[in-house]
Design a protein that fits this description.
The protein is an all-beta fold. Helix content is 0%, strand content 29%. The strands form 2 sheets. It has a 4-stranded mixed sheet, with no helix packed on it. A 3-stranded mixed sheet has the order 1-3-4, with no helix packed on it.
């Protein structure tokens, strides 16, 4: 992932909450071909947001880097 790019997160495993280290990101729903339209989400000053397509609840956690999630494995990694 290029430095400064917007992280893309997915919820392929169906987690009820995904903690993220970024307040601005893209939600893709699940890994292709089961993804939904890639939607830009911006929490602003809030600490959580729900994706309008897949209803995943994302919560901001300051201790995570922008490309980290808890549970792990919800960051979409680009093919090299």
């Amino acid at each position: 992932m290029a430095a400064g790019s917007t992280p893309h997160f997915h919820n392929d495993a169906g987690h009820s909450v995904i903690h993220v280290g970024a307040r601005e990101f893209m939600c893709i729903g699940a890994i292709a071909p089961f993804d939904h339209p890639h939607v830009y989400l911006d929490m602003g000053s809030d600490n959580e947001i729900i994706c309008p397509y897949c209803s995943t609840l994302y919560r901001y956690r300051r201790d995570l880097h922008p490309d980290e999630t808890d549970p792990q494995g919800c960051l979409l990694k680009e093919a090299a």
